[in-house]
Amino acid sequence: MTPQELRAFCLSFNASVEDFPFTPETSVFKVLGKLFALTRLDARPLTVNLKCDPDDAVRLRGEYPGLIIPGYHMNKRHWNTVTVDGDLPDRLVRELVEDSYDLVVAGLPRPDRLRLDRP
């Protein structure tokens, strides 16, 4: 997955936006103000921090050592750092981004979740 593909995919979700609260180089993708992906699109290798179910996070780290690691500068229980331009299939990267978005949406207040469900 290229940096442009990662950016476009993150922005394809309902109400997602790109923000730069830390540095102009660090893209933070949010849904209704809540972070679901964080990356430096110019970094090599390209990595992205993604929210993950704690049990899945540990399992994924075991299945993909070196490619999926505990979240860099994040809560290691709930976040993984995923190497996007490595040996992971693009399909898996997309699933992990979508899971991160879904986990963040699930934690939003009910009125916000309902608002996201409207076309």
TrEMBL record:
Keyword Plastid (UniProt): no
SUPFAM superfamilies documented for this protein: YjbR-like
Any coiled-coil regions, as ranges: none
InterPro entries, per database record: YjbR (IPR007351), YjbR-like_sf (IPR038056), YjbR/MT2646/Rv2570-like (IPR058532)
Keywords (A to Z) from UniProt: DNA-binding
GO molecular function: DNA binding
Any single Pfam family the record assigns to this protein: YjbR
Iron found in the keyword field: no
Listed name of the protein: MmcQ/YjbR family DNA-binding protein
Species classification: Bacteria, Bacillati, Actinomycetota, Actinomycetes, Kitasatosporales
